From TrEMBL:
Protein name, UniProt field: Methyltransferase domain-containing protein
Pfam families, A to Z: Methyltransf_25
Organism: Nonomuraea longicatena
Domain Methyltransferase: 42-139
Top-level taxon of origin: Bacteria
Length: 240
C-alpha cells in the first residue's frame, strides 16, 4: 500500500462529492448572514474548488480574492469561474499559501473555512498577524470552529459513498493516533466498479483542534476581539 501526504491532489476527484455531503451546506446557510454588513472586498483563505467562493460572491458586491495553493483545487475553481462571467469579473484567484498572502489593498472581511484544523500551532500563531495586515480597521475575520471529543484510534471506517455513472467513489477514514490537540489520520480514496476496487489512493494527514481560549489569546495578541457568531462559526473584529 502506497501512502502519501499529498492530500489535496489525491482528494480532488472526491472533494466536491464529499464536502457537499458534509459541512458545506451549513456554511453556505450561515455565511450570507455573517457577511450582510460587509461593504468592500473579501479575502477567502483556502478557497479549494470554490464551493464557498460562490457563496461569498453571492452575499457581497465587492471583489473576492480567493487564495488557494493547491494546483488541482485552483483548476476546478477557475473552471467554475469560466462558466460564470459575472464572477469572473470580480473573483481573483491567488496561488499563495496563507502565510504568503499579501494583497495590494486591505479588505473588509476575511473568510477561512476548514483551514484552521490544518495549521500546526506554531504556524497558526503566525497566521493571525498576516490576516490582520490584510484587513481594514474594524474588518472581520470569519472561520469555522467547534469543540470535538478526542478521536479514538481504530480500524478504517466508511465516511462517504457516491455513485457517479457506473462507478462508486468511496472515502474511508482511520484514526491512527490522537491527543486533545492533534489527530493523525489515514484517508482512503477508492473508486469501485461492480464491487471491485479499481483505484485506491491513501493519504496520511494531521489535524489540530485548539481550545477556544487558546484561539482567543492568539487572536487577541494580533489585535482581534471576539464577536457574536452562530454555533459552529466564529467572528472576530480587528480592533475594539
Amino acid at each position: 500500500m502506497l501512502v502519501t501526504q499529498d492530500q489535496y491532489t489525491l482528494a480532488t476527484p472526491f472533494y466536491d462529492l464529499w464536502h457537499l455531503d458534509g459541512h458545506i451546506p451549513e456554511v453556505r446557510a450561515l455565511l450570507p448572514g455573517m457577511l450582510a454588513d460587509v461593504e468592500g472586498p473579501v479575502l477567502e483563505i483556502g478557497a479549494g474548488t470554490g464551493l464557498v467562493t460562490e457563496t461569498i460572491a453571492a452575499a457581497t458586491d465587492g471583489e473576492v480574492f480567493a487564495v488557494e495553493p493547491a494546483l488541482g483545487m485552483r483548476a476546478i475553481l477557475l473552471s467554475r469561474l469560466a462558466e460564470r462571467p459575472d464572477l469572473r469579473a470580480r473573483v481573483t484567484v491567488l496561488p499563495w499559501d496563507v502565510l504568503d498572502t499579501d494583497l495590494d489593498e486591505p479588505v473588509s472581511a476575511v473568510v477561512m473555512i476548514s483551514v484552521l484544523y490544518g495549521l500546526p500551532p506554531a504556524d497558526r500563531a503566525r497566521v493571525w498577524p498576516v490576516l490582520a495586515r490584510q484587513l481594514r480597521p474594524g474588518g472581520h475575520l470569519i472561520f469555522n470552529w467547534r469543540p470535538r471529543p478526542v478521536a479514538e484510534p481504530g480500524e478504517p471506517e466508511p465516511m462517504g459513498s457516491y455513485r457517479v455513472g457506473r462507478h462508486t467513489y468511496e472515502v474511508w477514514g482511520q484514526v491512527l493516533a490522537a491527543t486533545p490537540m492533534k489527530t493523525t489520520s489515514r484517508l482512503f480514496y477508492r473508486i469501485v466498479h461492480r464491487g471491485v476496487v479499481i483505484s485506491e489512493d491513501v493519504v496520511d494527514s494531521e489535524s489540530y483542534r485548539p481550545e477556544f481560549a487558546e484561539l482567543a489569546a492568539e487572536l487577541g495578541a494580533a489585535g482581534f476581539t471576539a464577536r457574536e457568531a452562530p454555533q459552529g462559526m466564529t467572528r472576530w473584529r480587528l480592533g475594539t
